[in-house]
From TrEMBL, chain A:
InterPro entries in UniProt: AAA+_ATPase (IPR003593), ABC_transp_ATP-bind (IPR050319), ABC_transporter-like_ATP-bd (IPR003439), ABC_transporter-like_CS (IPR017871), Oligopep_ABC_C (IPR013563), P-loop_NTPase (IPR027417)
Keyword tags: ATP-binding, Nucleotide-binding, Transport
GO cellular component: plasma membrane
SUPFAM superfamilies found in the cross-reference section: P-loop containing nucleoside triphosphate hydrolases
Topology class, membrane: Peripheral membrane protein
CDD domains: ABC_NikE_OppD_transporters
Membrane spanning stretches: none
Protein family per UniProt: Belongs to the ABC transporter superfamily.
Superkingdom assignment: Bacteria
Name the record gives this protein: Oligopeptide transport system ATP-binding protein
Automatic annotation (TrEMBL), chain B:
Cited InterPro entries: AAA+_ATPase, ABC_Ni/Peptide_Import, ABC_transporter-like_ATP-bd, ABC_transporter-like_CS, Oligopep_ABC_C, P-loop_NTPase
Annotated compartments: Cell inner membrane
NCBIfam families: oligo_HPY
Homology family: Belongs to the ABC transporter superfamily.
Record keyword Nucleotide-binding present: yes
Species of provenance: Litoreibacter halocynthiae
Keywords (A to Z) from UniProt: ATP-binding, Cell membrane, Membrane, Nucleotide-binding, Transport
Domain of life: Bacteria
Name the UniProt record assigns to this protein: Peptide/nickel transport system ATP-binding protein/oligopeptide transport system ATP-binding protein
Single GO MF descriptor: ATP binding
BP terms from Gene Ontology: peptide transport; transmembrane transport
CDD domains: ABC_NikE_OppD_transporters
Keyword Nucleus: no
PROSITE patterns noted in UniProt: ABC_TRANSPORTER_1, ABC_TRANSPORTER_2
Length: 331, 338
């Protein structure tokens, strides 16, 4: 898909994740939520792909499907040359060591009855890595690596602050030396002054260990900071995918434009000059998406064709992909 | 955007030396320490702080919304309409609350009652505080929904909260808060639970309503970006105290407290230059086990010196309408007043 010299580590092709809706007296299937509806992207080794969008657009579902925490409806996900979406259970289990996840809520994703050392060691135990003594040593190394005090290894999660808890989650994700980590809103639950600490840690770890991230977030300014390329999702589809600077300096898709213009600016002098595109209405339901382009109900630049035909997701400039009829005449 | 303290008017709400303490099993938590501020008619005061900085507890205290125990208001005055709200009886307070002072909470799903339709919930304060009949209240409720930009208002009165989207629910909350024509509207993180495009809609709505209705608004948020766009004046809270207060442009252009400076330095933006590495405020906010005897920010502060460990600085004037609780003077690059 991309003419990059480096090989993509993760390759997602036409991924679909539909959830059935059951209803009625007999709990029959009466419809489906098209949470993710045919998306394709690559993540190159060592890069961070930012995935942004508003709540309900399907970005978290993408993250979970890519790691096969859901059985995908259709499409393929290839990580390091192996198709994970259709791998048999035992093979999948072996592949799991290569890919990990960091969750949004460090409170909910850590077992309150386990000590920090047990939490971090759990993936090692689960995958029979090393002897007990080696595992203990590895846990301490990991704690150093993420900036947790070794002396706290025997404490419980509730004794830590939000930012430290997120560090525990990061240490656990790193335990098996993964290549690829899905970060699902890793800083959304943290305070502003703590967010920067965690983001810097993620960047340092990436440089040290050569990690590849899929960074899912609704925080456009933080994604601008951490991502190399950015994909923008709307209602189950990627509407625009571009290198970071290109996307933020010159957004092409009308939704990306509106989304970026809506972000408040923490500088009154600049804030005054921002031209806001205020979108009217709300995101349609993914169980009943509009005909044609998914964004046609709110798009300020809507045309007749948008209400009829679905726009194709195509490369309109080198390494810039957009799904919009406005770019169809450009080759 | 109007800037600075425009015409000098008597404050409509004046809070003086408010102190709130929570009694818990593991000891006391001094959530609000000696907080003083005021807001003038028609002014939009932004209150910024991280979670646990005491911004919500301050607002809940002044309107008597905290259950006691565990909360204990240890001191201070809240002057509103010639009354001290902290000294007044429960009945008067009940009349003020939801009447002359309106409240909008963060999460519109949990603050609307799911078993009553929206019309009932808007009409409730109208009938209770304004003594309207059901028919009068219905007409007014309809007007209010139109005012906050909900289309097809008369039909939507019969709908239940779950039939509204997040942004629409927050509009309903605003309509309820505006029902009795409040003098002061307190909005506690009103857009935090919303998406950015919906947040932009709500911010436009509030700007518009303020022009139309001319009430004072206190807008609590952790998002400096939101504040930059709407506030006339900003108050920064940290560890239960007001550490800095200034007109919006002055605060962003010439911050005088190290915490405000650090906060402005850490946040990334979607416009302008992109730093290679984010600046970090090391450490974490303190645990407020006792009334502070030293500067609560000292352990994270790059400018601290010996005096900061001994004394808790009070707010010192740092310019017109601007004060900061810090011993360090950024203009001279040394201790203040030394």
């Amino acid at each position: 898909m991309l003419d990059e010299p480096k090989q993509p580590l993760v390759r997602v092709d036409n991924l679909k994740m539909h959830f059935p809706i059951f209803g009625g007296l007999l709990r029959r299937r009466i419809g489906q939520v098209k949470a993710v509806d045919g998306i394709s992207f690559d993540i190159i080794e060592g890069e961070t792909l930012g995935l942004v969008g508003e709540s309900g657009c399907g970005k978290s579902t993408v993250g979970r499907s890519v790691l096969r925490l859901y059985e995908v409806t259709d499409g393929t996900v290839t990580i390091d040359g192996r198709d994970i979406a259709h791998a048999p259970p035992e093979e999948l289990r072996q592949m799991r060591t290569q890919m990990q996840m960091i969750f949004q809520d460090p409170q909910a994703s850590l077992n309150p009855r386990m000590k920090v050392s047990e939490i971090i060691a759990e993936p090692l135990r689960e995958h029979h890595a090393g002897t007990a003594a080696e595992r203990r040593q590895r846990v301490l190394e990991l704690m150093d690596q993420v900036g947790l005090n070794r002396d706290f290894a025997n404490r419980y999660p509730h004794e830590f602050s939000g930012g430290q808890r997120q560090r525990i989650g990061i240490a656990r994700a790193l335990a098996l030396n993964p290549k690829f980590i899905v970060c699902d809103e890793p800083i959304a639950a943290l305070d502003v002054s703590i967010q920067a600490q965690v983001v810097n840690l993620l960047e340092e770890l990436q440089n040290e260990l050569g990690l590849t991230y899929l960074f899912i977030s609704h925080d456009l300014s933080m994604v601008r900071h951490i991502a190399d390329r950015v994909a923008v999702m709307y209602l189950g589809r990627i509407v625009e995918l571009a290198p970071r600077d290109a996307l933020y300096d010159d957004p092409l898709h009308p939704y990306t434009k509106a989304l970026l213009s809506a972000v408040p600016e923490p500088d009154p002098a600049i804030e005054e000059k921002v031209e806001r595109i205020i979108l009217t209405g709300d995101v349609p339901s993914p169980s009943n998406p509009p005909q044609g382009c998914n964004f046609c109900t709110r798009c300020p630049a809507v045309m007749d064709i948008c209400k009829r035909d679905e726009p194709e997701f195509r490369e309109v400039q080198p390494s810039r992909f957009v799904a919009c009829h406005h770019f169809n005449d450009i080759t | 955007m109007p800037d600075g303290p425009a015409p000098v008017q008597e404050p409509v709400l004046d809070v003086r030396s408010l102190k709130t303490v929570f009694k818990t099993r593991s000891g006391e938590v001094h959530a609000v320490n000696d907080v003083s501020f005021n807001v003038r008619p028609g002014e939009l005061l932004g209150v910024v702080g991280e979670s646990g900085s005491g911004k919500s507890v301050t607002m809940m205290s002044l309107i008597g919304l905290l259950p006691s125990p565990p909360a204990d208001i240890r001191g201070g005055q809240v002057l509103f309409d010639g009354n001290d709200l902290l000294a007044t009886d429960a009945e008067t307070l009940r009349k003020v609350r939801g009447g002359r002072i309106g409240f909008v909470f963060q999460d519109p799903m949990t603050s609307l009652n799911p078993v009553f339709n929206v019309g009932f919930q808007i009409m409730e304060p109208l009938r209770r505080h304004m003594g309207m009949t059901k028919a009068q209240a219905r007409i007014r409720a309809c007007e209010l929904l139109e005012l906050v930009g909900i289309p097809d208002a008369s039909r939507r009165l019969k709908d239940y909260p779950h039939q509204f989207s997040g942004g629409m629910r927050q509009r309903v909350m605003i309509a309820i808060a505006l029902a009795c024509d409040p003098k002061v509207l307190i909005a506690d993180e009103p857009t935090t639970a919303l998406d950015v495009t919906i947040q932009a809609q709500i911010i436009e709505l509030v700007k518009d309503l303020r022009e139309k209705l001319g009430m004072a608004i206190i807008w609590i948020t952790h998002d400096l970006g939101v504040i930059a766009g709407i506030a006339d004046r900003v108050m920064v809270m940290y560890a239960g105290q007001v550490v800095e207060q200034a007109p919006t442009r002055e605060l962003f252009g010439n911050p005088q407290h190290p915490y405000t400076r650090a906060l402005l330095d850490t946040i990334p933006t979607v416009r302008g230059a992109r730093p290679e590495k984010l600046n970090v405020i090391q450490g974490q906010p303190p645990i407020l086990g006792a009334a502070p005897s030293a500067c609560p920010f000292r352990e994270r502060c790059a400018y601290r010196f010996e005096r900061c460990n001994r004394e808790n600085p009070v707010r010192i004037p740092a310019g017109p309408g601007h004060d900061a609780a810090c011993f360090y003077d950024f203009n001279t690059g040394g201790p203040r007043g030394a």
